[in-house]
Amino acid sequence: MSSSVDAFLQHVVTRNPGEPEFHQAVREVAESIMPVVDGIPAYRQEKILERLVEPERSISFRVPWIDDRNEIHVNRGYRIEMNSALGPYKGGLRFHASVNPSILKFLAFEQVFKNSLTTLPMGGGKGGSDFDPRGKSDMEVMRFCQSFMSELFRHIGPNTDVPAGDIGVGAREIGYLFGQYKRLRNEFTGVLTGKGLGWGGSLIRPEATGYGAVYFAQQMLATRSETVEGKIVTLSGSGNVAQYAVEKLIQLGAKVITLSDSDGTIVDTDGIDAEKLAVLMELKNVKRRRIHEYTEKIPKAQYLPKQRPWQVPCQLAFPCATQNEITAEEALTLVRNGCLCVCEGANMPTEPEGVEVFLKAKILYGPGKAANAGGVATSGLEMSQNAMHLSWPRDEVDTRLREIMRAIHESCVQYGRESDFINYVKGANIAGFKKVAGAMLEQGLV
Ligand code: NDP
Ligand code: 2IT
């Protein structure tokens, strides 16, 4: 690593102690972009890097709520407004027991570059709470969302900051959050994305992250004259991103053989077909149950408690659960088993040493900020439709999503091409950075 990367990281670690995920995300970007920064004096003079790692605004608040037994709970709510050089802050809300400032800052930081890659006018932000939605009733979730929005509403708006879903925040939560915002502000605006289709949501938004990741994999595979068709796929997670990645992979003729949650993995060597996917969706989205129950409906599938899917041999791997879910050892296992493409539906799912393994093996490795940008891109399309007070047909949104993923891939190739392979990490970081940095220079010292 260059001494300027070392020195910069030292600065970031000293200013942000105890935030390992944030340090990890900054390190990866800094390693890619430092040669660019070193080559342009204005970036140094204007302290572009130092400004990029300092959120424009960090909001933290108390979220008290009452459960069904009339017991009071107190959670923490956050919104990190990271960078607005390219547009209003944009990024999801995560409700998960593990949520803390480090995780949200890493996600907000990644979001800045991801949103830049989409070419749509969106800055970067992220928020959420350490509230654990698991096992909560609809009424408890509603009361929590109402309390959360009772503070958040004063910080957001359709031209200021536009939250959306992430882990633990889907259509149900967006509905409750929107209802409370509308009530407090007395206005019906596109302040959140991922809304219901009947009240301002966009067709394809639920599908967009998973579909987009598969479109990105298609682009990567095409550089080696390969396709998705006929490939054996392992995939982690079983939520929004995982479900629609599976749907698209099935449509394209791939054989997906795993799914997981934080308790374990199911392996279905016959392949998950459309019918089994419908079973999974009912299980997860309607009944809100755990993945091991898949084996009750499909007895031939095997459940591996406490295990992740990566020891199961595959040609394509789609991590779609959470950060740091592929270690260096697991990355080595994937490569040794013949995996030719890892496409990240989740944010930062591969540990840095695992990324090294993929880059060294020169497999097709699509980092999250490029590969999963289809979700936020389609949120951007939802914002456009809301601003115009109209809605585009499904095919039109899907065509735009495909084109955005193709263009992101092209940017990665432009900035990531090395003598004998495409380094998508470098490509995504440099392409994302250049646009944000350019806008920051033009907007002066803010
Ligand atoms: P969901 O809440 O719908 O699903 C999350 C899935 O990941 C669940 O299967 C969950 O299992 C699993 N998971 C969550 N936390 C952990 C953990 N600590 N360890 C193991 N498994 C875990 O979320 P999404 O599908 O929306 O998000 C998945 C990933 O995709 C996240 O990294 C998110 O940031 C990223 N992403 C999401 C986008 C979106 O539009 N929704 C856009 C771009 C990226 P369990 O039920 O056991 O917690
Ligand atoms: O990580 C992400 O890009 C998201 N959770 C989606 C954000 C959005 O605003 O749609």
Characterise the protein shown here:
With 446 residues, the chain is α/β, with parallel strands linked by helices. It folds into 3 domains: 3-52, no CATH class; 57-187, 3-Layer(aba) Sandwich (Rossmann fold), CATH 3.40.50; 208-371, Rossmann fold (3-Layer(aba) Sandwich), CATH 3.40.50. 49% of the residues lie in helices and 15% in strands. It contains 17 helices and 13 strands. The strands form 3 sheets. The protein has a 5-stranded mixed sheet with strand order 1-2-4-3-5, sandwiched between helices. A 5-stranded parallel sheet has the order 7-6-11-12-13, sandwiched between helices. α5 links the parallel β3 (89-95) and β4 (124-129). α8 crosses α16 (394-416). The longest helix has 23 residues, at 394-416. It binds NADPH dihydro-nicotinamide-adenine-dinucleotide phosphate and (2Z)-2-iminopentanedioic acid (2IT). NADPH dihydro-nicotinamide-adenine-dinucleotide phosphate binds at residues 96, 98, 165-168, 170, 209, 237-242, 261-263, 320-322, 345-347, 372, 375. (2Z)-2-iminopentanedioic acid (2IT) is lined by residues 90-92, 111, 114, 164, 166, 193, 347, 375-376, 379.
